[in-house]
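Database export, one record per block. Field names are fixed; values are copied verbatim from the stored entry.
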Amino acid sequence: MVNDAREALLDRCVGLLKDGGFSQLSLRDIASGVGSSHRMLIYHFGSREGLLTEVVRRVEAEQRAALAALAAELDDPVETSRRFWQRLADPALAPAERLFFEIYAHALFEKSWTEPFRASVIAAWAGPVEELFVHFGWAAPEARRRARLSLAATRGLLLDLLITGDRGVLDDAAELFAQLVTARPPTAA
């Protein structure tokens, strides 16, 4: 029952984030925005930082599920990449992505509350993306290399988009990257 209440509260917090973000809001402001009290948020998440980390964890899980669904639907790695980039570049996701990069920045300085984030920020994505490359025909070692490159490049493109808003240029760059990272080596004559 506590887990159900926690998940329902987390659902409302994710909804508030998607409605406009809350990285600048206090815990009391967030609680008010979701119809709860700051004490309930502390009870379920330990701190404001714990709540923010859980919100990002949830949104990231939604994105991994969306990528897996695209890969299952499509038989083309470039089209999978293209559609996933379009999803990530949707302005509606910008508040969640800004929060992701805010926590990422704190993790770079090894803030203690970011330990769970640091433990999962690469690992939670690297495995599933590697599996996609294997699904599309690459051997495991090559799939691993391409997965890590894809993760780094996509995050870089997304960070650039959030800062510059240069959607057309970055759509083109994402398209080029998708073609490059999924290109097969030329066959020997």
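Remark 1: The longest helix spans residues 48-73.
Remark 2: The chain has one domain: 49-181.
End of record.
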